[in-house]
């Protein structure tokens, strides 16, 4: 069911509908100076293989942002492929996306939502902190990555 707020609609999207946004995210990270081995985002093919609940935020019918959450069997989840077009940053789509993904994770019984972002993504780090995420030690594939910042938010009080 779509979530609507302040002219923004967030709804489930198919991977193929948002390939341009996935490509824009990859290009933005590469232009920030990250080497290919420092970019951990899922490819289109990996996203299509399932497991990631992917949503898009639309303004006036055009998708301007995406985000996904992958649930794990151990009560954790990880945010994946979070991106908003630069012209729409700071205007609400990112907050609408993260609220939708956190609600989805909470409804699935998730205890902790984690994420990885890059050390150069200062605005993203501040955004996640505003939404209750705190820095944690690297986990999973990010252990030993000097370019990674890992964060988590507890979903239960």
Output the keywords.
alpha+beta; Aminopeptidase; 8-stranded mixed β-sheet; 4 helices; 8 strands; 33% strand
Describe this structure in words.
- The protein has 157 residues and is an alpha+beta fold.
- It has a domain at 3-110: 3-Layer(aba) Sandwich (Aminopeptidase).
- It is built from four helices and eight strands; from the N terminus they run ββααβββαβαββ.
- The protein has an eight-stranded mixed sheet with strand order 1-2-3-4-5-6-8-7, sandwiched between helices.
- The relative contact order is 0.16.
Annotate the secondary structure layout.
Layout: E1 3-5, E2 8-12, H1 19-31, H2 44-48, E3 52-59, E4 62-71, E5 76-84, H3 93-107, E6 112-118, H4 122-130, E7 134-136, E8 148-154
Parallel strand pairs: 5-6
Antiparallel strand pairs: 1-2, 2-3, 3-4, 4-5, 6-8, 7-8
